[in-house]
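CHAIN AND CONFORMATION:
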Amino acid sequence: MRERTADADMGSNAVAFHGDTTADGRGLLLGNPHYPWHGGRRFWQAQQTIPGELNVAGASLLGSPTISIGYNARVAWSHTVSTGVPFSLHRLTLDPADPTVYVVDGERERMKKRTVTVAVKGGAPVTRTQWWTRYGPVVASTDGELPLPWTSTAAYALNDPNAANLRFADTSLGFSKARGTADVLGSLARYQGLPWVNTVAADSSGHSLYTQSQVLPRVTDDLAARCSTDLGKAVYPAAGLAVLDGSRGDCAFGRDADALQPGIFGPARMPTLRDAPYAENSNDSAWLANADRPLTGYERVFGTIGTQRSPRTRGAIEDVAAMARRGDLTVRDLERRQFTNRAPVADLAAADAAKACAALPGGTAKGSDGKAVDVAEACSVLAAWDRTMDTGSRGALLFDRTWRKLTAKVPAAQRWKVPFSASDPVRTPNTLDTDAPGFATALADAVAELRATGIALDSRLGEHQFVVRNGQRVPVPGGTEGLGVWNKIEPVWNTPQGGYTEVTTGSSHIQAVGWDDSRCPVARTLLTYSQSSNPNSPHFGDQTRLFSGEKWVTARFCEKDILASPVLKTVHIRER
């Protein structure tokens, strides 16, 4: 179901630090959304100012009228893709004599037929027929991971409460005018407009916030227990997707008193963490937004509790918890955090991989094609690797290619000797099982692949992980989801061009924000793929080159900072 809720490669990191952890007692926020580098879902940077009414800076998706992720004189916020499942299904019991009639509590209800025509550029209009029920439109599919056939006796209706949700812009505008994290929560409660994201925020008074305040179908665990179909009993515990019995009126969602629309959860039910030393999310559930103050008690549709965390979450918690313990954080620490480029999986596995490699008889291993490959050089390269995904790191590419091949063939439960434990969720699982089938083969395949492509095993990552801008290669730092790198980059492997070329998704609009004595934001930003998609624009690759060099843009929010810019250009417009 993952591709039905959000793109598989989309995600994000964000962390807010409380004033108790910072050098000046004010809050700090680092936002690192992972979004497409191409197409209509690129971010666009802007500052919106209406004197006396609005002053906010940040970024929004192309075409959006409000700042989606940003900061103002008092508060900064970012979003991460949540684990909440924003829709549900109802299994309809049909009248065998008419597949467009369904039965609820013994009463027949006729589906409503809707015909939709869509204009097509350069072609004939396309017309489709939809059939609607009290739960939503009928959906039919016979393939994919969740077949939903429409037969003579049963069909499935999709309940998507966000189909009628036009409140996102109001919610974002509320953030833009907020004077602190309390106002952020107030906007979420007032408008209830976020469809599928968490919110992480910090303010100039030192408050921190994490909340999974999103529009979700009001599926309680009790409702799922009473009303799940056989399919629902399988998928709800595993994936949070409810499949309910649509023939029973007592299986309706009901309504929370504080919810703006029927059938969704109200603000009081949202997992929320206020004023923790740090509040962090890397696309896992709300459970470990702070490992010392775990969130529990929420319904399964929001996400899991007590389950294995991703490598990116585990690495993030280790790093930000250590930062919070210092107690003297500044924006500069956020800048360094973004470009640490540590690969948490490498810290768990690289040393064992190097030892296992060195122990291979004759320094050879068989690839998946059965041919022996000399891997002796790879052993020393892995042992010497600094375990980061910096552009200058030697051995990063070799480990990356090996790990991708290993994870493609070996299930997660078989990779580690020490399994996951809910009592130690940040440090488990661990200890790579190099004796299990697959490791030596993956290493041999990676070595053979790199040599066939003409890539030295100890080459620098940036020589073979790059994008091309105006005919020039621009090295790209960062690493893939599977390695757990905060600075997530998902590039395309292109053998003819010698490595990873264009980036599809990853770090996009990055912001590191604090405040100074005059309540002006101290902000550093980066739009990794640059503001313009026009190759003839001077802003087609300028920030991409900064990203490559791990450098930041000094944001100038207050008038004094704008006037102090060394490249300030003032244009006076007069009406004649």
The chain has a mean pLDDT of 96. The chain has 13 helices and 29 strands.
